[in-house]
Model the fold of this input.
Amino acid sequence: MSAPKIEFDDNTYLLVLTGAGVSAESGIPTFRDAGGLWEKHRVEDVASPDGFRSDPALVWRFYSQRRSAARDCRPNAGHTAIAAVERRLGDRFLLATQNIDGLHTAAGSERVVEIHGNLYKSRCSMCDRPPFQDDEAYPEGHVPACGRCHERGQFAVLRPHIVWFGERLDPAHLQRVEAFMKKAATGRFVFLAVGTSGAVQPAAGFVDVANRLGATTWLVNADPPANASSFAHFAQGRSGEILPGLLGS
Ligand code: BV8
Done:
């Protein structure tokens, strides 16, 4: 069977959704690889407001370890192919990523919505200081405090600028994805999901909206995920091997 390829014309709009699988070949473990666990904790428990309230030092150890591990990882051919097709399509392209590793931006993607936040950003858990770049891997047990609150004679801890389980996604991010889908529906709308188990909402539901808007839906994944039946086309395998041919770069 010839390698699958998406045909693009001047009326094609492409929305790409990526998950942890697109970064697997860059050496970043997926959530499923770890069976959804980290140090025997359920990720949903550590990556949650309750988890942070009950043990901020444990949560900062979790993110500091991930910052250290991801720091030396580089984009793979899958990230590069996605960045290349963005250059071809321009404003008829949008990437929504569930990943927080920054590898899409490192590969040259610009029209990216990091719907679950970014591993290398922190924000204050109390004041309205804007999120800021912070690639610090804090020492064991250290919980960083907010400098601005300190200047005001108050104490507040910093938290990773990440959307935890049970937290709302940034409405502006969801509006940007929704607006793109509506614009895409005026043309030839293609929706492509890559490397995601389809287990986490609301991202897992994007394909359903795309289908309702008449999109042609594609999935590239190592194995059939929970919502595989929602896709018209399923190219099974490693995204780093499939995407360059699929996207024609
Ligand atoms: C919200 C940041 C509402 C943290 C993340 C019950 C039913 C439905 C929903 C819920 C429910 N209970 C709770 C919810 C809501 C919850 C949810 O969906 N929970 C799930 C677990 C059931 N969702 C939320 O809480 C969201 N917010 O709903 O708010 C609300 C309303 C009012 C008031 C308050 C709130 C927030 C969700 C965001 C959570 N944060 N990330 C961090 O990363 O530390 S999600 C986190 O897990 C990741 O970001 C990632 O998105 C997700 C894991 O998913 P994947 O990316 O798909 O990764 P996974 O490992 O699972 O799969 C990888 C796939 O790749 C596999 O299929 C594998 O086969 C494939 N693969 C591997 N290698 C390759 C490959 N494919 C191709 N090539 C390869 N080489």
Observations:
- The two ends are 20 Å apart (CA to CA).
